[in-house]
Amino acid sequence: MASDEKNSTERKSLFSKHEISMLGLRSNFVQASFSYERMHSPGWTWAQLPYWEKIYKDDPQGLKRVMTDNMEFINSSPPLYPILMGLLLTMEEDQVDPVTIKGLKNALFGPMAGIGDAIFWFTIMPIAGGISASIAKDGNVFGPILFFLIYLFLFWSRIPLAHLGYSLGTKAIDVIQENSRTISHVASILGLTVIGALIASYVKMELTIKIGAGNNMINLQKDLLDKIFPNILPFAFVFFLYWLLRKNVSPIWLIVVTFALSIVMAAIGWM
């Protein structure tokens, strides 16, 4: 009797195993549509669009909302995208609060980028490339064939990863719904922490200006600004760009301004 009740309350999936497998294959083409304004988001949206259309077939506004949310800037490790797609697809299917979905998605991009890049680009591919190149340099055709087979394995490995993500989403959905506010809050904090770390790690700005006279010359950057607040210039510049975004300035213009400022500052010798 208990087992019958349990089976009756089990979640029924809207998608077949074949459809989830196709989600994994579609994720291979995320980078086929790429821009510096949105990075992976066009391909990310395209890969999941047929599934959202099925979920929101009677809700045009819901489909518009999910497409808009997922066309925001996205950049992570593509080999692990199927896991995240499967997880988020389950949440969309079960009508989880969009704020929770968005917060969880943004919070996971950073950690998954670190894990995926470390596994694929810093471990598997360098080792595979080194072995294949050492074989190929002697004229052995098996070298490039080996490298192609490894890439082929990574291509097809996205299918089980999509099933893994979808399965995890199915099991975790009740917990997420019961603790959606807490998860959303924690995910937002984690996302902001990741963004802060990325600013300090990847945005490089250093002034070469020196002030003073004779032996009393000091470096404005190292001897003054960094003493007050390390990485204050990258921090200020990023928030300046964020302020411009809030003023509805196009990201394309922000890229142009960044390039122009870099060229001018380097030309006059201030950076």
UniProtKB/TrEMBL annotation:
Which residues are in coiled coils? Answer: none
Task: Tell me the keywords, alphabetical order.
Answer: Cell membrane, Membrane, Phosphotransferase system, Sugar transport, Transmembrane, Transmembrane helix, Transport
- Where the protein is mainly located, per its record? membrane
What InterPro entries does the entry give? GatZ_KbaZ_carbometab, PTS_IID_man
UniProt-annotated location(s): Cell membrane
Q: Which Pfam families match?
A: EIID-AGA
Keyword NADP assigned to the entry: answer is: no
Membrane topology term reads: Multi-pass membrane protein
- Report the transmembrane regions from the record: 108-129, 141-162, 182-203, 224-245, 251-270
* Gene Ontology biological-process entries: phosphoenolpyruvate-dependent sugar phosphotransferase system
Q: Which cellular component appears as one GO term in the record?
A: plasma membrane
Recorded protein name is N-acetylglucosamine-specific PTS system IID component
